[in-house]
Design goal:
Radius of gyration: 18 Å
Mean pLDDT: 84
CATH class: Mainly Alpha
Largest sheet: none
Distance between the termini: 49 Å
Number of domains: 1
Structural class: mainly alpha
Oligomer: single chain
Length: 168
């Protein structure tokens, strides 16, 4: 009787895991769709600033393009910058897409001087370069790295959150 019970628990856990994954997948498709109207402008600015267009997915993961997004840590706006970082990189209004994107690009370029790989730059953006060097990646920074990579992969199959598969 016990092996059957373990089998039922395993199957139930597997089904729950699959359900959670499908929900997360649907949420991230929605994030891509929400950000689609801003994508051209953001990518144009990143390109002008000579920052990889892959960082567009950082914007998607950070705020889901919710203009009034605010974190529990006080980060605000499209790129979820704390006031001191936004000010340091020339952003007077984190809710203004152009100003915030230019500041985020400057901050990303600064982080790239210290952190050579994409994952570490994303983690440093999330928790601050000093904290990353001192403490290593936090769980929330690691979660953000995974989200950005997943969004990038998802977008290659479903551009801008469309539910149609991209033609091969």
């Amino acid at each position: 009787m016990k092996p059957l019970l373990y089998c039922v628990i395993f199957i139930s856990t597997l089904s729950l895991t699959q359900f959670i994954h499908k929900e997360a997948h649907a949420d991230k498709l929605q994030w891509l769709a929400q950000c689609a109207p801003y994508r051209t402008q953001v990518e144009a600015i990143l390109s002008e600033e000579k920052v990889s267009l892959d960082y567009y997915f950082l914007l998607v993961a950070e705020s889901k393009c919710t203009i009034n997004a605010e974190s529990s840590e006080g980060a605000k706006g499209f790129w979820q910058m704390v006031k001191s970082t936004a000010k340091h990189y020339g952003c007077s209004d984190p809710h203004d897409l152009e100003s915030a994107t230019r500041a985020a690009a400057a901050y990303i370029k600064h982080l790239q001087e210290s952190f050579k790989n994409f994952d570490d730059v994303i983690a440093a953006y999330n928790m601050g370069g000093h904290n990353l060097k001192k403490k290593g990646r936090s769980a929330s920074a690691q979660k953000l790295v995974h989200a950005v990579k997943y969004l990038k992969k998802l977008d290659s199959k479903h551009p801008n959150g469309t539910t149609k598969d991209k033609p091969q």
